[in-house]
Amino acid sequence: MPQLPAPNDPERPRPLVAARVSPAVERETLLHPLGPLRPSVIRWPLVVVCVVLFSGAGYYTATQRSPEFTSTATVNVGRTDVRVQALPGYVQGAQALAASYSRVVTSDRIVDPVASRLGLSSSDVKSRLTASPIPSAPIFEISARGSDEKSAIALAEAATRETQTFVSRTDRGDTSTSSLLKEYRQQARLSSSLQSQMDRLRADITNGDGNARVLRERLIKAQTDQQTAELRKQSLQSMYVDRASTDTSTAGIQVLSPATSAASDRDSMKQKLVAVGAIAGLLVGLALSALVARRRPRRRRVPV
User: Fold this and answer.
1) Which helix (H) or strand (E) holds 71?
2) 198 CA to centre of own chain
3) Which pLDDT tens digit goes with each residue over 113-129?
């Protein structure tokens, strides 16, 4: 009969059991007030180091980049006279023109002459030039960016002058008011001519010159034509007055605030990059804390 190995034989395999965690410790871990943030709070120096490092990287990046300068001119459409602004339809018309002029600033009609004047390419000018209307106001802004203050101011001034030239040329070429006045004069002459014809027909009827029935028919026709011409003349008169008042109030543009200075984006970019770095560092610190917390040593097995 073969002999069994002795209990203290080193070759005999020994059963292993996992060490049990105390229920009190396990309950304390599950019910901790910080919940899943407990590993990050316990390892807060790691989170702080990540935030400081990433914020410093953002600050360094902001200080090393070349700043960009922006110069802005504020332009008003029409006149600044309070009496003119009180005219009916002024506000709506001026606001519509401000929106239209702001779109014209970045069009080829403005960009190409400005590029030729400054010796730049049209694509460069278009990328550095912006314009936007002020909400609920007959005002729009022209902004220009540049690598230094001088170039930004020069581009904003050139764009403003070219916009003024374009608006003045457009106002001189507007013939809608002249057309209304011309048509009004034609209708006024026609109405006066028909009135004279009516007077002659009445005189002929009174004096008995000619066929009375034919004269009355011609008189009725002349009266109808004269009333139609008079109605048309009054309508044109009303249209001309409204259009003339609107054109007068919204004619041209006025520079309220010229582009005499430029603001640098260095400070604002520092704030943005430092804030982005701090957020990124916080996220990285939290992730590293959670990763370190998961890499716990395995539970030791004790021999029985």
Assistant:
1) strand 69-77
2) 62
3) 999 999 989 999 999 99
